[in-house]
Amino acid sequence: MARVEFQASLDGLEATLQEQGALVLRALRGAVDVLRSQDVELCDEVVAFDDEVDARYHGIERSIALLLAQQSPVATDLRLVLAILHNSIHLERIGDQCVTVAKLTKLAAELEPHNDVVEGLTEMGERAEEMVRVALDSFATRDVEQARGLVDLDELNDRTNHKVSDQVLLMASTPGTQEWGIRMIIVARCIERIGDNAVDIGEQTAFIVTGEFHEFTDASH
Amino acid sequence: MSMTTPRIDSGKLGELAATPDGRGAETVFAVSDLTVSYSGNVALKGVDLAIQKNFVTAFIGPSGCGKSTFIRCFNRMNDLVPGARVDGEVLYHGRDLYGANVDPVEVRRRIGMVFQKPNPFPKSIYDNIAFGPRILGMKQDIDERVERTLKHAALWDEVKDRLKENALGLSGGQQQRLCIARALAVEPDVILMDEPASALDPISTSRIEDLIHELKNEYTIVIVTHNMQQAARVADKTAFFSVELREDGSGRHGILVEYDQTTKVFTNPTDKRTEDYVTGRFG
Predict the structure, then answer these.
(1) CA nearest B7 in A: which residue?
(2) Is some CB atom of chain A closer than 8 A to the CB atom of B235?
(3) Helix, strand and coil in chain A, % to nearest 5
(4) Over the stretch A188-197, which tens digit does the pLDDT of each residue have?
């Protein structure tokens, strides 16, 4: 096969992206665990771990700059390179959301948690994990149908997010619960955004396979 | 104002780019079922394609795919090759270019050509430009024509003080721009360029490419290039030619594989053979 070095660089980039994805899944698992356990030390670990995710992102960005300058990719190769860069940014943002979840959980650690809300949040977090896993798998196997399935999972997370918000609103009249509730609304929003990022990764799978970029759902959805 | 779903269709990008300045609206050449043979051996088979006015159209493909053979059909250069035969139809503004009453010399005035290797006459810079207009009887205001043409070819500032010097003393890049100027001097409609920058250094190449961008507003340009990035940089549309083995094993000939907006060809080609060629996986 021609362009052996170039193909090796593309394969290397894709492997690094999956590596970044595996790290993000670990961060996300950590974020879900802190919600469940309110473990302050684990919160700090999740925050510190984000440097690993960021390092992979910067590595991918540098490699892509070199690849564009040296190899001038076109057609499928160009789409793959663009998709890897997009996905790496999406993963980096998921990592940031995990950091926010951990920081807010730590800030709320001394406050009394509300079990129904925690349950809703962990349900969302576990589903977000599944979504990131599906997004990465569909990208690796170029499976557009699997990627499209992310929309349904996202819908479920959106619903749970609304439910969590309603629960927080209900408990707002109870003295001493507001601070915890407000922090958890932001946590819910972070997890909901992780789902959106997973859908974004799925859209990149469709882009490299079909050559056309479409959002799976429009903004009014 | 209504908002629509964000959507990027790479196939539409070229069309969007073509509309604002009105280029590409008219057809200059309409080619149907064109087959070219040399001494009975088919070199290029069954090409259908249209060239649009004020577009830059690039022909790309591996060696032996017939792209140079094809570009030579547009100004009947193959007439000069013994044993060459052109079958099929080439309409130029609706007229049969190979019709019985068409004068090939008039064809070559309207459809100029620039070759891979700069080939100025061993005469002065001035005479290189003035030669064509003189023999075609365009004798009025010849000084002005020489100046205008050299300016058009972005060469005037470099040569205005040495117009009487021999053109062979110019650098390769300057000689090529002189050849483009020489083609422009007889007021053509179309300029054919057969690998015009392949013998030039990168700076001279980018000057030629800048010039192509300038000239497309007034001329229709067809360019054969081995440099795919050059096609991607300068062309509105790109045609990919490839080589096909004949079923009876009697040899091979060129075919047109894909012809589309350049943005489409280089981001999302339709044919697997185009994909393999532009990504460098060919062979």
Answers:
(1) A214
(2) no
(3) 85, 0, 15
(4) 999 999 999 9
